UniProtKB/TrEMBL annotation:
Probable transporter of a GTP-driven Fe(2+) uptake system. It comes from the Bacteria. It comes from Paralabilibaculum antarcticum. It is found in: Cell inner membrane; Cell membrane. Belongs to the TRAFAC class TrmE-Era-EngA-EngB-Septin-like GTPase superfamily. FeoB GTPase (TC 9.A.8) family. This is Ferrous iron transport protein B. Residues 225-252 form a coiled coil. The chain holds residues 102 to 380 of 834 of the full protein. Residues 3-165 form the FeoB-type G domain.
Length: 279
């Protein structure tokens, strides 16, 4: 059968290892990473005539390359290029978890969201139209309860669908950062696109956003380009332009825009505890 390489990406304690263990049938201990080693675990599983190679990555809140975990996960996605990234989202902490999702969207990769801890969301009595959010993000969302294995079969079916390009929900969306930032992104992107080798390494849009955030490893990637002078010059000009307009560090402008997008999406789809449940 076909081989599908999937990677579990998500915040610490979102339930990645629990899902990994359930899917692979292994009895690895769940628990926090010690912080001493940043590592991943692999397992192979046969299902529905496909061979899945599953990687459990360290937990991370962001892909900004500030911590060894963030750097590890980001490098893994960019160099190993998993066929489908399973973004494990803690349903009881949506805003913070979806921040990472917004960065995966920028990366232009195939993503399926495992809306894990769905039992906790139900217990809270929250009203969450995740199907609507799914449409807005262009990413399929499957509710799961990792600790009970609920939703895991559906998750794998969805992964296959996405891998085979059969899912109608999947769509390449761009988070709209607002006119000024979008203009800066396209100006930088234009320069990046002049170097096909660089484009093969990372999505030009992702790289442009990262350059606006003055991200070290994005700058390092650009350094190796034959076109590095023009790209860096444009990025510098655009950063100055945006900082002048927003009177804020450019990185903050981008972060605010991401949270703005998430808040807007949640406002339309999520209501905390509409009617307190009584027994
Ligand atoms: P990781 O850091 O993302 O690998 O998260 P873990 O797999 O270590 O899970 C963190 C904790 O959440 C563990 O105590 C799990 O038993 C628990 N857990 C995992 N999935 C669920 C779930 O769907 N619902 C509930 N209530 N707890 C879960
Ligand atoms: Mg874990
Ligand atoms: K953990």
């Amino acid at each position: 059968g076909k081989n599908i390489h999937i990677a579990l990406v998500g915040n610490p304690n979102s339930g990645k290892t629990t899902l990994f263990n359930f899917a692979s049938g292994s009895k690895e201990h769940v628990g926090n990473y010690s912080g001493v080693t940043v590592d991943s675990k692999q397992a192979k599983v046969n299902q529905n005539g496909y061979q899945f190679e599953i990687t459990d990555l360290p937990g991370t809140y962001s892909l900004t390359a500030y911590s060894p975990e963030e750097l590890f996960v980001r490098k893994y996605i960019m160099s190993e290029r998993p066929d489908v990234v399973v973004n494990v989202v803690d349903a009881s902490n949506l805003e913070r978890n979806l921040y990472l999702t917004s960065q995966l969207i920028d990366m232009d990769i195939k993503v399926v969201i495992a809306l894990n801890m769905y039992d906790e969301l139900e217990q809270k009595g929250a009203n969450f139209n995740y199907k609507e959010l799914s449409k807005m993000l262009g990413i399929p969302i499957i509710p799961t309860v990792g600790s009970k294995g609920i939703g895991v079969t559906e998750l794998f079916d969805k992964i296959i669908n996405v891998y085979e390009d059969l899912d109608p929900i999947v769509r390449h969306i761009h988070i709209n950062y607002g006119n000024s930032v979008e203009e800066s992104i396209s100006n930088i992107q234009r320069e990046i696109k002049k170097d096909p080798k660089l484009c093969a390494k990372a999505s030009p849009r992702f790289l442009s956003v990262k350059l606006l955030e003055s991200d070290e490893s994005a700058r390092f990637m650009v350094k190796e380009s034959d076109h590095h002078f023009e790209i860096k010059k444009t990025a510098k000009e655009e950063i100055q332009k945006l900082e002048k307009e927003f009177s804020e560090v450019c990185e903050t402008v981008i972060t605010d825009a991401k949270y703005g997008f998430i808040d807007g999406a949640l406002k339309e789809t999520y209501t905390e505890n509409p009617i307190k449940r009584r027994r």
